[in-house]
Amino acid sequence: MAAQPKTLEYEYPNYLQDPRGIWSWLTTIDHKRIAILYGVSALFFMMVGGLEAMLIRAQLMVPNNHLIGAAIYNELFTMHGTTMIFLVVMPLELGFFANFMIPLHIGARDVAFPRLNALSYWVFIAGAIFLHLGLVRSLAGMPDAGWFGYANLTERMYSPGINIDTWVLGLLILGVSTLLSGLNFFVTIVNMRAPGMTFMRMPMFMWAMLVTTILILLAFPALTVGLVFLFADRFLDTHFYRVSAGATPILWQHLFWIFGHPEVYIMALPAFGIISEVITPFSRKPLFGYPMMAYSLVLIAFLSYGVWGHHMFATGMGPIADSTFAITTMLIAIPTGIKIFSWIATVWGGRLRFTTAMLFTLGFIVEFTAGGLSGVMHASPPVDLQQTDSYIVVAHFHYVLFGGMMMGILAGFYYWWPKITGRMLNETIGKWQFWITLWAFNGTFFPMHFLGVLGMPRRIYTYAPNMGWDFWNYFESINAFILGFAFLLFFINLVWSTLHGEHSSADPWDGRTLEWSIPSPPPAFNFVTIPMVTARDAFWVRKYGSVGAHGVAPAISGGAAAAPVGAPAEVHEHIHMPAPSIYPLIFGLGLFMAALGCMIWIRLILIGGALILMSILGMVFEYPTFGQFNPEALAESTLGLDNRKLGMWAFLGSECVFFASLISTYMVYKDRNLGGFDAMILNIPLTSFSTFILLTSSLLMVLALAAVQRDDRKWGAIWLFGTAFFGMIFLGGQAYEFTDFVLQGLKIQTNLFGQTFYTLVGFHGIHVLIGVCWLLVLAFTTAAGKIGKDRSLAVEIGGLYWHFVDIVWVVIFTLIYLMRTVKHA
Amino acid sequence: MGSMGEYSPSVIGAILALAGIYAGASWKLGKRPGSRQILALGLALIIMCFALTGPIDYYVRERSFALYIFQQMLLVFVIPPLILLSLPDWMARAVFTRPWIEPAWRIITRPVVAFLTFSSAFTLIHYPLLCDHICHVRPPYGDIRDLLLIVGIVLWWPLLSPLPEFPRMSYPTQIMYLFLLMIPMTAVAAPITMAETVLYMFYRVEPHPFGLTAHADQVLGGLIMWVGQGVYLMCIFTAIFFRWSRRDDREIPAINLRRAADLRIVQRRSA
């Protein structure tokens, strides 16, 4: 870290310099700029969430306090949780660090789908604003049912205001954003790694992100389904969570926690990854037990789907389910323990440098372990029954979320800020910040363990004096304000250092991974030439060489430092980066308006929908390369697969969970139906016919693809029109069926059968409708002679989607129609 | 009902026939399988014997749901991989590359197809309605066993194909495959475990062996299918993961051996 008195001048402008202007930021599709946008937004929400936390603590500071009152207190703790999880931790980890670092770590020029990346950001902003929309009405308009939004408190009859409306819609929108990010990063990590970068040579942060994206793809659909039911209950007057109709509010808990527990790991794993990256350069050792570290990440992912019940011990699931979830929960401590010990072993015997980033890393290890240990404690159902809903749980998850994830994020800030901005964060302020944070964090949250044992319940806005809670609450509140001061230092450091901080060299920490091989801040295209990776810790090996089975590691050809000393740096290929696009922003706007339309003016949905449609079509036809095979990109891809195809497969995997959740709900609820209409109403002969039609359309799709692939545009168009036509016949059959049912008196509100049937089959119908529109666009484009052999990929991907929709229908037809059983609760 | 010591002749016969076919094929093709392959076959046959005859079989016929599920798990997750491991490539080639088998086998053992075939067959045979219709007197054990064994082999083929002409999936894809297998297995097992009533007509009759009530027996069976299967697959996936990391590790040279060299950044040369 030699002193760099003045700005380094690089051969290329960095990503912040070129192009300039607000418009260039609104239309940017550069992953680094999108990361900055995410980072700035998330830091803003961090301030909001932090202020909410301090207001909560101010309210709880003394007994019988009426500073803000019960209603606002409910809003504050709800919004504090929702904000910190969805608007701070996830955007910082996924949107900011992962977005910025994934391409740099794996040696790529951008993510797999740059415009989708921008779209994720604008959708995120739409959702974030939507969550706070209640403020427009009044101060009392914010969501107020907790971040978990337990039914049936969230039902219209218990929460009549707009509070929960904005919460449901906001989370649905944020879910779209996260899912698309997850998909994008998954494809990027799997398919865009630099030559030689095998999975086992990836930086550990990439492993963490790979596993995280898989968790996102498979977990978020469950939340979406739960929210869709809640939406229907609130806006369409169904009874998914209403006991009076035979339903059970526990369904919400199942759906929410099947999402919610993987969500904990969606937040934790990126922090694990960041820590694994930060700890190595400052210990000057490679990561201890690399294969074990990667393995434990995958094992955590495996196990995280089998532990959701530990959030529900108090609901009375019965001894067998309780024991199962207790065992799986305790099992998950094993891979987590592997990680803790590996980090300790990495530090062990290293040449340590206690920079701020390293301090936060060590803080993470200590505090996260404490949080993990109290988690194992809750895993035992009898113990948990004593502790649940008391402050000991609050202490536990703050040790995990703040002591773990937030410390990891702060370490990431101090470690990567030089790469991101070209300036070092001030170490003196940083160290003050660390020590104050460490003190105040423990001061705020450690006594909560005591308060929990003393019986103080969560989610109460005030308490009576002389219960033995007074001192610790006062103590915690004081420390919470000190913690707030530590974050003030952090923000001051960010702003001051970005303007006046010491300039950073390309490699200020003597780093091990590829991002340190390129200038700080990097140029828009990251790597002048794509590096060739010969080993784990690619840049380290490049710098220091190595003697192994293959002798001295050959020079990687990428980046600045990789250029042989004294050699001319002019040898670089012509780099094209995709052009900026305004459509992602329009899409976000459209989604916002459509959601707003649900609440205030129904026609706004149409306007929003039109904007969404316009932006989708715009994005499809914006570049002349749509649907084209790109032999160059294909040759550079890791798997030899097209990104778009891989993305479609990942999306369909996610859709499987979506439909599985809907089908399971149908299966559970059909036996709880209180009477009235049931599955005997289903018209099997008619549906058999439309099933046949839909299956035939799949055959036509195969013919269409074959025709397009042999460049037969005429027959390609004919078969595509045929497929779309058959799809329309199917839709017609479904419209007839639905109308028939409604005329017979079965509406979505009628009973449990009606609502689950209409939701499941209706969602499938929407998929068919989207498929038909897609096919029509393809058919018209083919008829216009635009899609031939060179663009057959467009048809192939559409076909994948169409076949998937047909397979889902076969499942629905078999389980819901052919195997109907009728039982009344 | 037979006594506990009874071994059903049809199963013993089938197992001996399998061994005979194996030996005969190896004799006819004039080659000798490797000792590990013979060991795998021996293990497969012993486990088959254990699962399908003797005490387990006896209690399954006495309506022990838990052991019935245990038997299924052996048939699907233990025996097929061992059988695939026991097949030398020349023996498998003699069967699976026949002109009328190869194209169909190629389609059915594509990972996605194999996965869907197994999942749908496994889901369907546990669908209460179907079970009640087909087997409300007694389950057609023989047929279900054959079906499970066959879909088991289809399921495991993409991971353990004995033939280079049918390449195995790459290690990461194998892990993903096992990971996704969790979805159908949970979808079947969770409802059985969580059900508040006894789902299958055949098993509603009390008492069940081992002093269990019909419901407790069902819960135990569900847990064997859910947790037992999950832990077993996790062990398999662990083996795959470390085989993968070892293979990748070998290519990585040792690092950290030489001291720092000077670092250069490409700076503007014209200035």
Indicate the mean pLDDT of chain A: 88
Number of domains of chain A: 3
What distance lies between the first and last C-alpha atoms of chain A, to the nearest angstrom? 72 Å
The number of helical runs of chain A is: 25
- Helical content band of chain A: 55-70%
The beta-strand count of chain B equals 0
Strand content of chain B: under 5%
Order of helices and strands of chain B: HHHHHHHHHHH
Largest sheet: number of strands, sense, barrel closure of chain A: 2 strands, antiparallel
Question: Can you walk through the features of this model?
Answer:
The complex is a heterodimer of chains A (825) and B (271). Chain A is an all-alpha fold and 825 residues long. Chain A folds into 3 domains: 472 residues, Up-down Bundle (Cytochrome C Oxidase, Chain A); 37 residues, no CATH class; 170 residues, Four Helix Bundle (Hemerythrin (Met), subunit A). Chain A has 25 helices and 2 strands. A two-stranded antiparallel ribbon of chain A has the order 1-2. In chain A, strand 1 and strand 2 form a beta hairpin. Chain A is globular and about 75 Å long. Chain B contains 11 helices and no strands. The longest helix of chain B is centred in the C-terminal third of the chain and has 37 residues. Chain B is globular. At the A-B interface, helix 9, helix 10, helix 17, strand 1 and helix 21 of A face helix 8, helix 10 and helix 11 of B.
Layout of secondary structure:
The complex is a heterodimer of chains A (825) and B (271).
Chain A: H1 22-26, H2 31-60, H3 69-106, H4 114-131, H5 134-137, H6 163-191, H7 204-235, H8 250-283, H9 290-304, H10 319-331, H11 333-347, H12 356-378, H13 381-387, H14 391-421, H15 427-453, H16 470-500, H17 538-544, E1 547-548, E2 551-552, H18 583-599, H19 603-622, H20 631-636, H21 643-670, H22 684-709, H23 713-744, H24 752-783, H25 792-818
Antiparallel strand pairs in A: 1-2
Chain B: H1 9-28, H2 35-52, H3 54-61, H4 65-86, H5 89-96, H6 102-108, H7 111-125, H8 128-135, H9 141-160, H10 171-194, H11 214-250
